[in-house]
Amino acid sequence: MVSEFAKTILEAKASNRPLRIRGGGSKDFYGNEPRGELLETRGYAGIVDYEPTELVVTARCGTLLSDLEKNLREEDQYLPFEPPHFGAGATLGGCVAAGLSGPRRASAGALRDFVLGARIIDGAGRELGFGGRVMKNVAGYDVSRLLAGSLGTLGLILEVSLKVLPKPASELTLGLEMPQARALGSLNRWAGQPLPISASAWQDGELWLRLSGTTAALAAAAERIGGERLDGGAADALWRDVREQSAPFFAGEAPLWRLSVPSHAAQIELPGTQLVEWGGALRWLKSNADAATVRAAAARAGGHATLFRAKDRSTPAFAPLSPALERLHRELKAAFDPAGILNPGRLYGGL
Amino acid sequence: MGQALPKVELQKRVAGALREFLPARAVLWQEEDTRPYECDGLTAYRNVPMVVALPETEQQVQQILRVCFSLGVPVVPRGAGTGLSGGALPPGDGVLLSLAKFMRVLRIDPLARVAVVQPGVRNAAISDVAAPFGLYYAPDPSSQIACTIGGNVAENSGGVHCLKYGLTVHNLLRVRGYTIEGEPVDFGSEALDSAGFDLLALVIGSEGLLTVTTEVTVKLLPKPEAARVVMASFDDVQKAGDAVAAVIAAGIVPAGLEMMDQPATRAVEEYARSGYDLEAAVILLCECDGMRAEVEAEIGRVKEVLARAGATRMTVSRDEAERLRFWAGRKAAFPAVGRISPDYYCMDGTIPRKRLGEVLRFIAGMEKKYGLRCPNVFHAGDGNLHPLILFDANDPDQLRRTEAFSAEVLEKCVAVGGTITGEHGVGVEKIDQMCVQFGAAELETFHAVKRAFDPKGLLNPGKAVPTLARCAEFGRRHVHVADRVQHAGLPRF
After folding, report:
1. For strand B51-53 and strand B95-98, is the pairing parallel, antiparallel, or unpaired?
2. Per the CB < 8 Å rule, is A192 touching B113?
3. How far apart are CA A294 and CA B70, in angstroms?
4. Minimum-distance CB partner of A328 among B225, B430, B453
5. Angle at A330 between CA A327 and CA A334, to 5 degrees
6. How many angstroms separate the CA of residue B108 from the nearest CA in chain A?
7. Exposed/middle/buried for residue A134 (C-beta within 10 Å: 0-12, 13-18, 19+)
8. A-chain residue closest to B112, CA distance
9. Residue A309: which region, alpha, beta or left (left: phi > 0; alpha: psi -120 to 50)?
10. Interface contact flag, B196 A347, Cβ < 8 Å
């Protein structure tokens, strides 16, 4: 199958036809409108190597994210970056290409932090391997992490090795009532203390905190923080709905913006409603405000805004790059995909 | 251009161009001044730089780079020069760019939990200035009292707490770098991610080949409420290796998990008096940190697991002073070994942990084969080995045997599914072993990445990524590994 992928890419390169690399299609909505001839990766699936005591799993791109997570769960391990699936068909390859992390991101790290190695086919049809299956590895440039969030524009991701961790012994969710500004202040203060907070979500005057760790740690932390405990089933549903964007906040026609800003940035005044995650570092905005206004507000706060989901996809999804960064993006794209046939435009026009 | 000039002429021209905007004390070119820069922590490789530049401002860095770019002169950035792979080995025909004067902590924001520092700030100094706020910077390479954050960025340095807290790449938010053309670029920001490719991840660990770091924003973490270490003795290396796997299998992620063999503990004990068990074949140090209640519970579980795995003796640190004493020995392993031998050569391979016994037996075999001693310290939690070959550099044959010993061990690391360098970098030292770890297509891609940042190949040239011709030559010289060398198809020159 790898040789078929390579052949397809070489043919596309020869005839200068763009390819649209796609796993389960669960994130088709993300980034700029996909275009090009479909190259499906679902068939190249399976866990290649999983040794729980090594804390490393290696799997092929078409592996269903749900299958991978089930295998880890059987060994009481998990993907600490808690990736959103956005559909039952989500694959590992798509997950890495999108580079999205879930509620645990602020405490555990992002998807890219857990990428240890990858095999890809680049735009010249060459099969390449970077990184490895060990936790510490500084041989060669860190191309594997560069793939995270590159939306398939640098190569077809064939196989990925990820660091995994043991699941926390227990979890506990607390609810507190407070306005956004106070929640932002509290979240930043708590983050500066040794508390086992593993997720946070504020919306409409309610702040939810998830604590993860030993029961002793949770009891001590819950006493310090206060608030009301949410029972296990309801708590699981709450964090799933935040992660998968199935909470009522995400419903409705208005475009969904993702504002990634410093956690301590003050409340961002924009029309629409907001949901705050990641200890303040992620602000979801449902708003009809125009793109320039939203992007300027995010930039003023020290971050950037992504048009995450919108019916009308004419507005570029990602914030524009500085000229210096844009030049580096173009040069890197040319290094991996000289003909510009892999998911062109999905990340930026001309890339 | 520049290269065509005789060296003395070129030196004059470069020094003259730099003196136009740098004071006399910031441009060194006489040998008595430049010789101290001839090597970094890897003293086996030396080269007196043509010119040393010591800028104090970003604008000066920019001007130096512009001059070198226009004259086609190589530039090698340098921090404290503690690196162990020759990454800061100077160019004989170029400028050594020392960032030693960039020593200021620009900003500490306790609420945001970030510190903005210049690249010449020492690793340990960041935690020192953050301490009054109950915060610290997590990566702690053993050289942390001397090594600088700029060098840590270049090497993606680790330390003894990587398993839980990650490497440099996991603990930075932003790096400002200057390209060889003198253009400033911010990689990352104080937000948790940035639009576009993750160039921050690409720049970290790029060994000074892509940009010159002038400013770094690091994440600060709250100091754990409590931390305690279990020191456990084992009468057999394999048992200790299995004990590490058993700790992980029990769902415990220790803050630190280190192993030292008897030759290492004996060398260290004389130097650091850490109270190590000198009768044990190996000792494990396993640290738990977190909330007080959590640490007590976890230490109890760790002791149970280690006892079941065959620990012959266990001591738990009673207080902070004892905990630090346990670590002091581990962190002093390199200098301690330096006292029992005229020279030592530190390796840095990483292996899947389950192959530990096999690799240590292989190293023992190499000690016999080459007639050289080799104590081992090991970041057991993440599989990163630091065997230390003892030798005398004044004896050319010992140096030759040391290099052959080390090459065989690194190639063994690759053969068992690991890597030639976990945290020290490739530099000049392991450049031939890159030919074993990567194929021609990957190396070509690395060169293409380099060209995207540095089209003329002037920043730290000749380091980290070998040319294909060099790999072909290496394959020809190392016939015994020819079946594993990945360039069998390349023409031999």
Report:
1. parallel
2. yes
3. 41
4. B453
5. 140
6. 13
7. buried
8. A264
9. beta
10. yes
A197/A104 Cα distance (integer angstroms):
9
Q: How close, in Å, is residue A288 to chain B by CA atoms?
A: 21
Q: Which residues of B touch A282 (CB under 8 A)?
A: 192
Please report the DSSP string for B184-202 in residue order: EEEEE-SSS--SSS-HHHH
Choose among B195, B171, B113: nearest CA to A298.
B195
DSSP 8-state symbol, B90: P
Specify the residue for token string 């919306």: A203
Half-sphere exposure of B451 (CA within 13 A, CB side): 12
Å between B97 CA and nearest CA of chain A = 22
Distance from CA of B470 to the nearest CA of A (A): 16
Contacts of B206 in chain A (CB under 8 A): 141-142
Report chain A residues whose CB lies below 8 A from the CB of B422. 134, 136-138
- Can you read off the two tokens belonging to residue B452? 């995207």
Residue B425: closest CA among B37, B40, B34 = B40
Tokens of B171: 């603990």
Q: Which of helix, strand or coil describes residue B218?
A: strand
Q: Which token pair is A16?
A: 């200068």
pTM beyond 0.80: yes
CB B63 within 8 A of CB B36: no
CB contact (8 A) between residue B352 and residue A319? no
Distance CA B48, CA B64 (A): 19
Closest CB from B135, B249, B442 relative to A140: B442
* Per-residue pLDDT in tens (0 to 9) along chain B, 493 residues: 445 678 899 999 999 999 999 999 999 999 999 999 999 999 889 999 999 999 999 999 999 999 999 999 999 999 999 999 999 999 999 999 999 999 999 999 999 999 999 999 999 999 999 999 999 999 999 899 999 999 999 999 998 899 999 999 999 999 999 999 999 999 999 999 999 999 999 999 999 999 999 999 999 999 999 999 999 999 998 899 999 999 999 999 999 999 999 999 999 998 889 999 999 999 999 999 998 988 999 999 999 999 999 999 999 999 999 999 999 999 889 889 888 999 999 999 999 988 988 999 999 999 999 999 999 999 998 899 999 999 998 999 999 999 999 999 999 999 999 999 999 999 999 999 999 999 999 999 999 999 999 999 999 999 999 999 999 998 887 644 434 445 544 443 4
CB contact at 8 A, B34 and B93: no
**Which runs of consecutive H residues, i.e. helices, occur in B7-145?**
7-19, 31-34, 58-71, 123-130
Q: Using an 8 Å Cβ cutoff, are A137 and A179 in contact?
A: no
Q: Do B350 and A137 touch (CB under 8 A)?
A: yes
B193 with A260: Cβ contact below 8 A: yes
A228 min Cα distance to partner chain B (Å): 21
Rounded (to 5) percent helix, strand, coil in chain A: 30, 25, 40
